[in-house]
Amino acid sequence: MTTLSAEHLSLSYGATQIIDNIDLEIPEGKISIIIGSNGCGKSTILRSLARLLMPQQGTIYLDGKAIHQQSSKEVAKKLAILPQAPEAPEDITVKELCYYGRHPHKGLFSRQTPEDHRIVDRALSATKMTEFADRTLDALSGGQRQRAWISMALVQDTDLLLLDEPTTYLDLAHQIEILELLRDLNETYGRTIVMVLHDLNQAAQYADHLISIKQGKIYKEGPPETVFTKEMIKDVFRLECCIIENPVEQTPLCIPIGLSQD
């Protein structure tokens, strides 16, 4: 199992510091979800964990080795990231998109192998996209398109999967479809998943490990039942609320009351 952690991590854009000296260890084989108010640095943390952003200070470790001391190809064999708004030619088919995920495992002029075909077919089956394999991206619904991108990330065949707000722009039914898919990938294939989510109740429902961010610091992290409290919601989101038990999942459920006056 691939490990991912950070020590004394500080991140900035230009002169603006976003994340200030945090330590983070991603639990192996679990779903970790990062929450926080707009602009708190959730996506910045995710980008840095994927080696897309150089730290101002501190070190990110992938399998115990500093991630910035590893080649891009080496990292891509261990970790896949799905950004918030991935781009590809609209006329590319789902299967063609998936084969891009095999590039980290190929030589410069290598051809597709039976192993590549097997992995692509397995990913399409896992995401229930087999019947759409020959469709172009522009012929898919929003939920189908997101599943196509997740298929490509799976084809990369990594232990770690990072996703930046994977339910953005989707209606509620498709949001749940994607989150259920990710839960199934975690439970069936043991993938370690780290994602950023805006919806607090969905985060509490689907996370094994919840990480709340406030003003560039980790406010609290751990199981949802210990992190997802009315005190955390008030301090991090400036929102008064009641916390009850989700009657289906037995996870914490936030009922908003109004903005905090403190």
TrEMBL record:
Keywords: ATP-binding, Cell membrane, Ion transport, Iron, Iron transport, Membrane, Nucleotide-binding, Transport. SUPFAM superfamilies: P-loop containing nucleoside triphosphate hydrolases (SSF52540). The keyword Transmembrane helix does not apply. It is a peripheral membrane protein. Pfam families: ABC_tran (PF00005). One of its GO terms (cellular component) is plasma membrane. One of its GO terms (molecular function) is ATP hydrolysis activity. Its main location: membrane. InterPro entries: AAA+_ATPase, ABC_transporter-like_ATP-bd, ABC_transporter-like_CS, P-loop_NTPase, Siderophore_ABC-ATPase. Transmembrane segments: none annotated. It comes from the Bacteria. It is found in: Cell membrane. PANTHER family: IRON(3+)-HYDROXAMATE IMPORT ATP-BINDING PROTEIN FHUC. This is Iron-dicitrate ABC transporter ATP-binding protein. It comes from Peribacillus simplex. The lineage of its organism: Bacteria, Bacillati, Bacillota, Bacilli, Bacillales.
